[in-house]
């Protein structure tokens, strides 16, 4: 197929590319709250949802590298587990280094590392069992999260630092639901048209149901500071039940739709986005490193969010990322950081 990157599932890469650029938008743009009547606000869908899509795709990746629809077993599974542990450690280290730059974003990589470790005991499970576990986490943990967020461990400067190095802005007890759902999708065989249609339809139903529930007057009138208001919230990064169902469903629908879209002639045209999705770690880290360097040189302060956004960096970052990732994918294949992590994992766990 034209524009194909060897060894990849095009639709999964496309979804990853959208997630990465969505996180660029959430970081680099000042976005007004979503208003269906104002197209200028539609980009607000990237807030929160792009990172949830990113986490769901992490689960897809874990499933694919451990056999996809036919899970590996025995010595191969043991090796895969050790390599995932190595990758988790490296992701945490990279995340800690990015945090040290002072760039004012909540770096997702420490949470990613913990989510990789949480996934290890689940690698032998079937898609059916993974769907059940993901549903249980999604329905139960939002009721516990307000109490977890209120723990004294998060108080003060030390608590703030702990939250950063654990990626608590993406709380792993809850976000494991997205990773496990992604693993279930990967185990269900994403090369199947039927799987893609089921993901698209099921995800859309969940997203629409959550949106409809959030519009119910009794729920809309809840005090967002109350326990019930927090549990049922649908705001970005709230961890509320409606956000989990709506944004999680939206992530699954996006993955299914991207897989279907890449089975058409549009696949070749979408190569630049797919190239970004083939090296998401490189694109994500590159954005934050470039941000730190430019902000330090131009503003003298890597933490000046409004000052950096005033430079209007979004489109330059997007265009450079698309061009660089496309050239690298076509000429050299696997992304530089992805290649480095793979090399280290193979050396440590041969």
UniProtKB/TrEMBL annotation:
Residue span(s) of domain Heparan-alpha-glucosaminide N-acetyltransferase catalytic: 8-196
GO molecular function: acyltransferase activity
Pfam families referenced in this protein's UniProt entry, alphabetically: DUF418, HGSNAT_cat
KW DNA-binding (keyword) present: no
Keyword flag Disulfide bond: no
Parts of the chain that traverse the membrane: 12-32, 52-72, 84-100, 106-123, 130-148, 168-185, 197-220, 240-261, 281-299, 314-333
Domain of life: Bacteria
Ranges for domain DUF418: 208-344
InterPro entries reported in the protein's UniProt record: Bact_Transport_Assoc (IPR052529), DUF418 (IPR007349), HGSNAT_cat (IPR012429)
PANTHER family, per database record: INNER MEMBRANE PROTEIN (PTHR30590:SF2)
Full protein name: Acyltransferase
Source species of the chain: Microbacterium aurum
């Amino acid at each position: 197929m034209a524009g194909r990157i060897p060894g990849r599932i095009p639709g999964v890469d496309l979804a990853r590319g959208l997630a990465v650029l969505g996180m660029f938008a959430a970081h680099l743009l000042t976005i007004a709250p979503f208003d269906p009547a104002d197209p200028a606000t539609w980009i607000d869908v990237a807030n929160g949802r792009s990172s949830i899509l990113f986490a769901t795709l992490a689960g897809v990746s874990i499933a694919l590298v451990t056999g996809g629809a036919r899970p590996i077993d025995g010595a191969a599974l043991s090796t895969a587990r050790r390599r995932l542990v190595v990758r988790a450690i490296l992701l945490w280290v990279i995340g800690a280094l990015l945090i040290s730059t002072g760039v004012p974003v909540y770096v997702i990589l420490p949470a990613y590392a913990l989510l990789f470790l949480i996934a290890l005991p689940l690698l032998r499970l079937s898609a059916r069992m993974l769907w059940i576990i993901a549903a249980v986490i999604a329905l139960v943990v939002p009721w516990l999260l307000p109490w977890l967020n209120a723990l004294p461990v998060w108080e003060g400067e030390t608590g703030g630092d702990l939250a950063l190095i654990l990626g608590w802005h993406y709380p792993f007890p809850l976000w494991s639901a997205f990773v496990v759902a992604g693993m279930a999708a990967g185990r269900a065989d994403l090369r199947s048209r039927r799987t893609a249609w089921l993901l698209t339809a099921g995800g859309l139903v969940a997203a629409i149901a959550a949106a409809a529930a959030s519009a119910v007057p009794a729920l809309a009138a809840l005090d967002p500071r109350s326990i019930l208001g927090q549990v049922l919230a649908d705001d970005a990064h709230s961890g509320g039940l409606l956000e989990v169902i709506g944004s999680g469903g939206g992530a699954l629908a996006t993955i299914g739709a991207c897989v279907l879209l890449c089975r058409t002639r549009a696949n070749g045209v979408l190569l630049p986005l797919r190239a970004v999705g083939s090296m998401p770690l490189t694109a994500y880290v590159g954005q934050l490193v470039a941000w730190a360097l430019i902000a330090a040189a131009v503003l003298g302060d890597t933490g000046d969010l409004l000052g950096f956004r005033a430079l209007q960096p979004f489109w330059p970052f997007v265009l450079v990322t698309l061009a660089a990732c496309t050239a690298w994918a076509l000429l050299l294949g696997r992304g530089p950081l992805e290649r480095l992590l793979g090399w280290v994992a193979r050396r440590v766990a041969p």
